[in-house]
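Please check this chain.
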Amino acid sequence: AVIAAIFSFVILFPPKVYINIIYHQTVKCQEADTNRWYSQIMYKERFAKELKEYIGDRSINQVAKDIGIPTQTLHRYVNCQREIGLENLVKIADYFDTSLDDIVGRK
């Protein structure tokens, strides 16, 4: 029964076709990962730019303390080294009295 199943699979999907199917699925996954990676980078860069503008001449240490998040976390957001979670995003937007769209650069 196992041999019959393997034989049927090979007839339905000859090795060349099977490899082609795997290749195209892999390429699609890689393209999706690349697009997701690119959009994440752009999102972090836009957010970092907006955050720098909102912070202005203030001390990052003081802003972080006022918001209630670790200074190192705020430094990483500003330097585009960390993605922000929703909770901290809301805290930062509330602190600067702005909308979430504005703080992430969707004006």
Q: What stands out?
A: The radius of gyration is 24 Å. The helical segments are 2-12, 15-55, 60-67, 71-78, 86-95, 100-103. The CA atoms of residues 55 and 63 lie 7 Å apart. The chain has a mean pLDDT of 77.
